[in-house]
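[AMINO ACID CHAIN]
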Amino acid sequence: MKKYDVIIIGGGASGLACAVALTENPHLKILIIEAGERAGKKLSATGNGQGNICNKDMSVCHYRSGRIGLAEKIIFRVSAERTQERLFGKMIYFTDGAGRVYPHSMQASSLTDILLRRLKNAGVDILLSTRVKNISVSDGFVVDCGENSFLAEYVVLATGGKAQKQFLTDGSAYKLAQNFGHKLTPLRPAIVQLKTDTKFIKGLKGIRVNSMAKAYVGGILKKETRADIIFTDYGVSGNAAFYLSSELTSGGIIAIDFLPQYGEDEICETLKTRLGSGTSYPDILCGIVHNQIARAIIARAGENSVEAIVSLLKNFTLEVTGTLGFDYAQVTQGGIDMNDIADNLESKLCKNLYFAGEILDVDGDCGGYNLHWAFSSGTAVADDIILKTKNK
């Protein structure tokens, strides 16, 4: 069996970041094992293919974890700018109005190209279209891939979670950790489209509006955001739905404010003035909101009442009945229980076994937070292994 110092299982963002950082010790023999036919495939699709790598607002409030303190230590151990420079070298970045940071090329695949080029130049081996069947311990790790097995002193599990099975992240890799006694926290899809009661939104499919959207669970406000929402035949999509999906489950409520920049009294006065000048009741919202949304609001109000219309303009509620599930989710909420993970992201149950990225019970909001977690956790693991092998 061929022997390596480090075997990284998973060639996604966290696995590639870990490998690139590990090459800072040129004496390490590194192997990446990737189930797909191409490494970095999900990275190349991030940010709608534009490469949203982080956000200017790097606050821990944008993350969720069973051990948020540990996640915070990893995320902020060095600056996002330092992590990016370490992985991609000198780059020019573009920041949009929402604080989302992209390579100036606005091309996510260029980020993958840089990482793969660096690994090739460093002599890192990448084995594609290969699934790991089992990992056992016998004077180091034995990584069983069926036809081939490999030996390693260190193993990094960077396999991703259960979201977007088209990238071969179907959740099956959790078993590799569970075989060592690691537990899973409850898994649910996040950054995902929301299914809702559609009675009041028939005919709105494809309409996009910039709104203030709020998530309520049990009548309690959990989260709110000013972002685009897109109506669909099953419910709602868009950045607002993605952002709120981390809180909303079946039975929750999404409330949409179509005119967040205006108060109820101001809107009420405008509509009453229109009625007084001869505008017919069915046309009262013409030019204020999309005509189809106007018809939906007037139909739902069900009476010739300006107050009822204004109430719906400011608080158009939809009951959430579910999500489109893991196949459509951008990330997995939940994962390997962080209580069995040390501060260096090493397993507390098995020495020299590490974890990075989405496989762990850490997830962030949409807007570059999950990719930054992938990069920061991958490089943190690499730094600890480099420290342990500094005399190699």
Summary: The first helix runs from residue 13 to 22. The radius of gyration is 24 Å. The first strand starts at residue 2 and ends at 9.
